[in-house]
Amino acid sequence: MVYRLFPVTELDVEKYKALRLTSLKVDPASFSSTYEREIAFTPEMWAQRLASRFKRTFIASVKDERSISETWVGMISVLGPSELIPATLEPFERAGVGADWDMYFVAGLWVHPGHRGRGLGTRLVKEGLEWARRDMDPKNDSEGKKDRMIILLVGDDNTSGRALYQKVGFTNLTSMPPGEGNSYMSLKVA
Predict the structure, then answer these.
(1) CA separation for the pair 17, 3 (Å, rounded)
(2) Burial status of residue 104 (CB atoms within 10 A of its CB: 0-12, 13-18, 19 or more)
(3) How far apart (Å, rounded) are the C-alpha atoms in residues 96 and 99?
(4) Closest CA relative to residue 141, chosen from 55, 80, 187, 93
(5) Residues 143, 158: contact at Cβ < 8 Å?
(6) Are 71 and 102 in contact, with CB atoms under 8 Å apart?
(7) How far is CA 121 from the centre of its chain?
(8) pTM exceeding the 0.70 threshold for the entire prediction
(9) What's 178's DSSP letter?
């Protein structure tokens, strides 16, 4: 099998929708959303998820040597500062964390169970980090005085996810109070 990683485009909205809905069915506890909520999205809502230049979704696909088609088996989305809504930032403001950061958020890392343990999660995270490193979001500090930080929320019982993030360099964000069964992790990118 040959794996390939690439950024998704608006032209791929139906494949993205199918992968996202599959992820919500297979691992519902890994997401803050639900299958029931997202199956009701309109086509416009799905397209909007991929339309912003202030976030990027990367896909992992697999191609069997005997086949000409690819199957999507993993994804990650990274949201830039212009994509973050006030409700996302409010807990950080309340805790007095992040005022001196350009904040990016990892959302929706998922790899199909049949393809786990092959380094795809790590490759997806690294692809997202590289995008954040290069991204020129208009809300970023143009003078370079703020640290560019990648933040994520991981389930306390998600030991394999936590290990993956730590392997890439994320550490527990101890200045943030943990949520219900979740903890924040962060990584500074240069």
Answers:
(1) 20
(2) buried
(3) 7
(4) 80
(5) no
(6) no
(7) 11
(8) yes
(9) -
Q: Cα–chain-centroid distance for residue 177?
A: 21
Rounded Cα gap, residues 153 and 162, in angstroms:
10
Q: pLDDT (tens digit, 0 to 9) for every residue of the chain, 190 residues total?
A: 789 999 999 999 999 999 999 999 999 988 889 999 999 999 999 999 999 999 999 999 998 777 788 999 999 999 999 999 888 888 888 888 888 889 999 998 999 999 999 999 999 999 999 999 998 888 887 777 788 999 999 999 999 999 999 999 999 998 888 778 889 999 999 7
Residue 64 has phi, psi (to 5 degrees) of -75, 145
Number of alpha carbons in the 13 Å side-chain half-sphere of residue 177:
8
Which residues are within 8 A (CB) of 136 and not within 5 positions of it... i.e. 6 or more apart?
none
